[in-house]
Amino acid sequence: MDIYLPIAEVSVNWPTLVILGAVVGFVSGLFGIGGGFLMAPILVFLGIPPTVAVASQASHVVASSTSGVIRYAGAGSVDFKMGSVMAAGGAAGALAGVELFRYLRLLGQADLVVALSYLVFLGAIGILMLNESLTEILRRRRGLPAPHKQRRRPMWLYGLPLKMKFPKSGLYISALPPFGLGVFAGVLSAIMGVGGGFILVPAMLYILRMRAGAVVGTSLFQIIITTAITTILQAGRNQTVDIVLSTILLLGGVVGAQIGARFAGRFRAEELRAALGLIVLLVGIQMGLDLFVRPADIFMIAPGVAD
Q1: Dihedral pair phi/psi, residue 5, rounded to 5°
Q2: Shortest CA distance to 86 belongs to which of 179, 212, 155?
Q3: d(Cα 98, Cα 215) in Å, to the nearest integer?
Q4: Backbone angles phi, psi at 291, to 5 degrees
Q5: How many CA atoms lie within 13 A of 142 on its CB side?
Q6: Chain segment 73-125, per-residue pLDDT in tens
Q7: pTM to 2 decimals?
Q8: CA-to-CA distance for 17 and 56, rounded, in angstroms?
Q9: Which whole-number Å values give the CA distances from 203 to 44, 88, 200, in the listed order?
């Protein structure tokens, strides 16, 4: 049942990859994220070189995000204008990120930077999400009133040029902040192989102050374009996209994302955020352990080192 991956240069059990694609697709549909932050570390644990894992699983992110956008668009919950501005920034960020990734590979530091990026970003985001959601759950169970939240948008949003109307999001702001968020997501997509939804969603809610109902669908729409561009650039510039691996993951991801989206409405928002925060934190800790814990065999060659 093993299949040889020509770019990764390893053999893996293909049913395991199909199941992995379905499970991560389910998580993607459930939480409204791309799922790349979860897929890449698991592929590394299975022995796929980090550089190949990051580049190849991007197609899975595209497939699962597309599945989610179709569902959210049907409910009128996607701001395509806002998503297009962010995607334009994502394209610029992906171009810069892929060149940075190529430079790091030439230095032999790409695997280290990928692992450190996961540790820092996932650790920080996981702690913040877990703290916020657990506080909300405890407040609700104790019957305490909801604290008054400051909904006023930052004044600097109104002082920037190139203002545009985003009716679906309820905003009339400069296009520069969403463009900048897109650039940041594009760089993350190239370096970490993620869509960036775990950072974009909080930023769209708490910085741009978008309508909550349009945030997840718009984030997924931006992720599709940015990640697709990243995949093409990685394949052309770095030759690290394993088409066999991408295709197998994609098969399970499409089905899993649809099932996950159907289950999403059965849970409270804070419970979903708590579960997602815990997953994000655990993945970040695992990547950190691989960096700092002494291996059982100190002469073992880590995946990807021989690239």
Answers
A1: -100, 110
A2: 179
A3: 27
A4: -80, -40
A5: 9
A6: 888 888 999 999 999 998 999 889 888 888 888 887 777 787 788 788 778 87
A7: 0.73
A8: 12
A9: 29, 17, 5
